[in-house]
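Here we describe the complex-level prediction in full. Unlike the single-chain runs in Section 2.1, the four entities below were treated as one system.
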Amino acid sequence: MSATVLAAVMPAPLAAVEIREFREPDLPRGSAMLRTSFAEVCGTDVHLWHGRLSGVPYPIIPGHVTTGVLDRVRGEVTDSAGRELREGDRAAFFDVHRTCGRCLACTVDRTPTRCPSRRVYGITDSAADGLFGGWAQKVYLEPGVIIARLPDAVSFEAFIGGGCGLQTAVHIIERSRLALGDTVVVQGAGAVGLSAAALARVSGAGLVIVIGAPASRLELARKMGADEVVDLDRTTAGERLTLVRDRTRGRGADVVIEAAGSPRAFEEGLELVRDGGACVIAGHYTNAGDSTVNAHRHINRKHLDIRGCWGSEVRHFLAALAALERHGGEVPWQLIGSTPYALAEINDALAAAEAMTVTKALVDPWS
Amino acid sequence: MSATVLAAVMPAPLAAVEIREFREPDLPRGSAMLRTSFAEVCGTDVHLWHGRLSGVPYPIIPGHVTTGVLDRVRGEVTDSAGRELREGDRAAFFDVHRTCGRCLACTVDRTPTRCPSRRVYGITDSAADGLFGGWAQKVYLEPGVIIARLPDAVSFEAFIGGGCGLQTAVHIIERSRLALGDTVVVQGAGAVGLSAAALARVSGAGLVIVIGAPASRLELARKMGADEVVDLDRTTAGERLTLVRDRTRGRGADVVIEAAGSPRAFEEGLELVRDGGACVIAGHYTNAGDSTVNAHRHINRKHLDIRGCWGSEVRHFLAALAALERHGGEVPWQLIGSTPYALAEINDALAAAEAMTVTKALVDPWS
Amino acid sequence: MSATVLAAVMPAPLAAVEIREFREPDLPRGSAMLRTSFAEVCGTDVHLWHGRLSGVPYPIIPGHVTTGVLDRVRGEVTDSAGRELREGDRAAFFDVHRTCGRCLACTVDRTPTRCPSRRVYGITDSAADGLFGGWAQKVYLEPGVIIARLPDAVSFEAFIGGGCGLQTAVHIIERSRLALGDTVVVQGAGAVGLSAAALARVSGAGLVIVIGAPASRLELARKMGADEVVDLDRTTAGERLTLVRDRTRGRGADVVIEAAGSPRAFEEGLELVRDGGACVIAGHYTNAGDSTVNAHRHINRKHLDIRGCWGSEVRHFLAALAALERHGGEVPWQLIGSTPYALAEINDALAAAEAMTVTKALVDPWS
Amino acid sequence: MSATVLAAVMPAPLAAVEIREFREPDLPRGSAMLRTSFAEVCGTDVHLWHGRLSGVPYPIIPGHVTTGVLDRVRGEVTDSAGRELREGDRAAFFDVHRTCGRCLACTVDRTPTRCPSRRVYGITDSAADGLFGGWAQKVYLEPGVIIARLPDAVSFEAFIGGGCGLQTAVHIIERSRLALGDTVVVQGAGAVGLSAAALARVSGAGLVIVIGAPASRLELARKMGADEVVDLDRTTAGERLTLVRDRTRGRGADVVIEAAGSPRAFEEGLELVRDGGACVIAGHYTNAGDSTVNAHRHINRKHLDIRGCWGSEVRHFLAALAALERHGGEVPWQLIGSTPYALAEINDALAAAEAMTVTKALVDPWS
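The structure predicted for the assembly as a whole is:
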C-alpha cells in the first residue's frame, strides 16, 4: 500500500532543504491526514532558514498554513461548529495545534498566542515526530487540531493566497478597533499588509492608503482595495507625511497598521497617525533593530495608542475563512501567491521568498 | 472698596517673577471671584519659566489648579450637578476654561485635551486679560468655568496636595483599565506618581510598586498606598527588573504607569511590563529626549498596549474631588504640598520646584 | 428686500399644520441662513403631532434634519475641520444645536444625548423664537451650530434619504461593536433599519438579515445591502427563529439591531441573538408598551449584552456624511425618500408618514 | 489501606441525600486527591435538589467549590504559574474541570462559560464516575483540573466563605466596568451580593448601597464594605428609588448589580440606574419568572447597558484567591459561612439553605 509520503526537510539553519520519504502514520481516533494541495513559503520560513527563531527543533518540515483534501479520517472528527468532517472534504486547519489552556497567558491574560506551550505546525515540531509541516505531500492532523471545511466558494488558490497573512490581518483589524469612516494607513505591501488593506476596506474604512514597494505589489494593493498607494522607493518620509495630512484635513491617519517589519516604518507611523489615534504593530515578527521614539511628542502629547499584535487565535482562522467566502468576489486573494513550486524546487522557492521577488511563494508537493 | 488684588506675574521665560497690583474686575452675570487659599507651583510652572511650552502669551499669572473661597458671585452660578454656588463656599474649579466643543478633536475623536482652542488658567491667558492664574490673591472665574464646592471632608491642604497631579492620575487610572488584582508599577514619585499609586491601590490593584527617588518621596509613596518602593538611585535597571519579575511569578507587571518624564523610564517600563500588559505614558509633559525601543521585542512579540495620556477632562476633575472625599482618610494627600510660600517668596518657590527639593511648592497669596 | 419666508407651523398636537409667513432675521456674527432644498417628515414628526414628546413648546416649525444651500453667511463660519463656509455652499447641519457641555451627562457620563439642556431643531424651539425647523423655506443657523459642506458626490436626495435615520444608524453600529464576519439581524425596515442594514454590510458583517414589512420596503432593504429579508407579515416568530438559527449553525445572530419600535420585536430579538451576543435597542423613541423578558433565559444565562442607543452626536452626523460620500455608489440612500411634498401639501405628507404609506415623506418648501 | 471515602449522594431530585462509601481511585499521572476541609451548600445545590437544572446525571455528589489539603499527588502537578503542587499543600481548585477549547463559544465568542461540553464538579458528573463533588471526605482532581495553593493568609474558612459567590462576584465586577467613584447598588445580600459589594468597595466605588434582607445579612453587608444598606422588607420600591436618587444628585446609580434572582429586582434595577449606566444581571441562575420591561423608558431612552453574567472562568477563580489574600484583612469573608454541618447532617444543611436561614451552609465531611 502507498505507505510513503515525500516531504521537504530543513535539516538546520542555512543548510539546503532536502526531500525525504516518510511513512504514513497509523491514525489514532480523532485524527486525520490531509493531502496537501498548497503550502506556502512565507517570511516565517525565511526566518526559520536564517535560524532567527529560538527553540526550533531542527530538522523540521516547514510550512504552517496549508490546505488540501482530507485523505483519511479516523473516528469522528468535527469542525468548531460540531459538523462532521469526511474523507474527500476540501479543508484547512489552524496551525497552532496546542496551547495549554491552563497557564496565566491562556487563562488570566487571555493572550494564548503568548502561551509558553504553544505549538505550531511547520515550526515547533521536529521531523522526527512526523508529518507536522505543510511542505509535504500529506500532513498529519493530530486529535484536537481545529479543522475546517473550505467553503465551496473558496478555491485552494484563494485560501493559500490569503494564507497566514490573512489570519494575522484579521487579528490586526480586531486590535485596530476600526470605526466606520476611519482613514487607515497600511505600511508594507507584503502578504500581511495586502490582506490588512483589504480587510480595512471591507470593514468600513473611509480611506485606505498603502505605503510599500515595489510597484507591482502596489498595483496588487490597489486590486485588494487600497484607495491610494505610495511607493516607498520614490517618496521621502516628509512627502508621505504631507500626503497623509493632506488627505486627512491636516490631522493624520486614524489608524496606522505597521506590516513592514522595519524600524523606520514604526518611527514613521508615529508621525503619520493623528492625535488620539492608534498604531498597530504587526510586522516585527523578528528583531529588525531598534527605533528612536520621542515619548513626549509621539506618545504622551499625542494621547496615542500603540498596540502590538502577535500571532493569531482560532477565531482569526475561522474569520479568515469567512472573509474569503464573503469577500472573495471583490478581493483577489488568489493573486498573492506565485506559480507553485514543486517539492524538488523548494530551495528556489525559499530563495525567491528571501529575495522577495515574489509576494508569496507557493508549494505544490504533488506537481 | 477693596478694589485691588496682588498677583505674581511671570514677565517672560527666565525673568524674575514680579508682584503686581490688579484691579478687581466687574463681574458679568454667571461669573465669580475666588479668594485664593492655595495655589501650587508644579512642574508645568517650571516648564513655563524655562519657556518650554509654545504659544504662551507672557506676561502671565501662573498657577492653574487653585482652591479658595467664593468671594463674590454674580447671578446664578451652578455646579455640574446644577446646585447653586454661593459666596462663602469653599470651592475649586476646572482649570481648562475653554474647549470649543466643535472641532474634530472635541467631537469626533473625543479627545478634548487635544482641542486647538483649549485654554487653561495660569498658562494660556495673558496677565493683560486679567486674573486668570492662581498665583494671585483672587482669581476671576469667567462664565462657563466648571466650579465645584469642596466637600466638607476635604481640606484646602488635601485638595491642593492632590492638585493637578491627582487629576492627571485619575485620567491615568482610566486609561490603564486596571483589573482587580493587577500588579501596578508606578515610575516616578512626584505629585503625579504619588497620586497614581494611591488611586491604583484604592481601585483594586493587587500590588503597587513605586520606583523613584529620593528616599523621602518613597517614604511618602508608602504612606500614599505603595506596597513596595524601589529607590532609583540605589538600584540598577537589572535589579529592578529582577524584583518586578520576582513579585509577579516571572511575568512582569500587568500595568506600568510612567510618571517620571525620563526617556530611560519609558524604556525600562517596556521591560517591566508583562506580555499582553499595558504601559501608560503620562510623565512626558515636555520633550526630555528620545528613547530607544525595539518594536519586535518590546511591542510586537509582547502583544503590548502603550497608551499616551494627555491632560484631564472635567470628569477627571470631578472624580478627583470625589476621591479626596472618599479616600482622604487613608491617603494623606495633604502631605504632598510644602509649607506654603507667600507671594513675596514666589521666586524661592519656583527655585524649590525647579530643584525638586520639595515634592510640590504651595503658594498662599495672603500670608 | 425679500424679507419674508414661508414655514409650516404645527400649532398644537393634532391640530392641522398651517403655513405662516416669517420675517427673515438679522444675522448675528457667526450665523447663517440655509435655503432649504429638502426637509423630512420622519417618525419623530408623527410623534410630535400626536403630542407624545414632553416639553415641546408648540407652536413649532417641525423638521430636524434638513439640507440646502447657504443663502447668507455673516462673519466667519467654519466647519468642524476649520474650513470656511461660504454663501452658495451646499450644506447640512447637526440638528442638536445646544448641549451644555457642563452637566454630568455631558462631562462625566459622556452621554450628551441625555443632556437636560439639549436643544434640537424642529423639536425644542418655539416658532415664536424664529426659523428653527426645516419645514420652512429657510432655516436660521445660529452661532455655534455644526454646519458641514455636502461633499460633491452627495446629492441633496441622498443626504435627505439617509436623513436622521442614517445618523442614528451610525450610532447603532458604534454601539454594536460589530466584528468582521458577524451575522446581523435588523428588526425594522424603516429609515433607521434600512440605513443600519447598509452600514452593517459595509462595516464587515458576514450576513445581514432584515426582518420587516411591507414587501416594498424589504425590496429596498435588499438594494441597501441586506443579504436576506424576512417578511414580518408572512412568517411566525417561530419560523424566523428557525431561519436565523439555520443561517448561524444553530447559534443565533451575533448582533440584533432593534429598529422596529415594537415591544414584540424587542422580545423576539432576545430569542434571535446568540449566547454572548448583543442586542442594540434603537427603535423605541416613544413608549410603545411593555415587553415580557425572562431575566434567566434571555439575559443571565445568555451572558447577553443589551444596549440602548439614544439620539446622535456630532461625530455620528459627520460620519453619516462620510458614509454617504464613501458608499453612495453602492447604497441607494436616495431611494428612501418619497416624491417631495410642497409646503401646501404638508398635512398630506404628515398623513402619509403616519399611515406609513411612504418610507419617508420629503418636503420641498420651494415647490 | 484506608481505601474508602464517605460521600453524600443526592440520588434524585427531592430524594433524601444519603451517605455512601466510595473506594479511593487509583490516580493517573497528573491527578491528585484533595482531603476536603470544607465544601458549601449554595443556591445551586438547592436548585439541584429541586431538579431545576437540566441534564444532571443523578445520582451525584454535590458540592462544587471546595477546599482542603492535597492528600495524594501522582506525577507532576503544577498550578497556573507552573509551580509544583505537593502533598500536604492547602489547596483549592477551579470547579469547571472541562471546557472543550474548540467550539465556537470557546474560541470565537470567548464565552467559555457557554461551552456545551462544560463540566462542573458537583453538578455534571455522576456519582457512578467517582468522587467528583465536594460533599465528600475526598475529591478526585483529574488531570487538567486547575489547582491553586491557598495563600498562607487565606484560611479555609475565608476561602469557603467567599466560595462560588466570590468567583461570580469577580466576574460581575469585570462585567460592570466600574470606574473610580461610581455609585454601585447591589440587589441581594446573599453570598454573591455580599462579595460583589465587597469587591465594588475595594475596586474604587464611591458609594456602595446594598438592598436585601433580612437584617442580619444587611449587618454583614456593612461589615463586608457596604456604605449603606436598605431593608427590602421595610421599604417600598418607591422609597428605594427616592433614596438612590437622593444619594446621586437625582441621577441614579452608575452601576446596578442584580444578585437577587427575583424578577422584581431586575425591574427595579432598571429604575435605580442612571441614564447611560449599566445593570449587570447575575442572580438569575434559574428561571424565577418573567419581568416587565419598557424598552423605551428603561433601555432606549436611558441609553442603558444591561449585561448578563454567567458562571466564572479560570481568571475569576484566580482573582478570587488573590482578592482573599489582598483584602481578607478588611473584608470578613469567613463570616459568610455557617457553623459547618457534618456529612450526617447534610439534609439539615440543605434544608437550611433552602429556607435561607443561613447565608451559606458549610459542610465539614470529617466532623
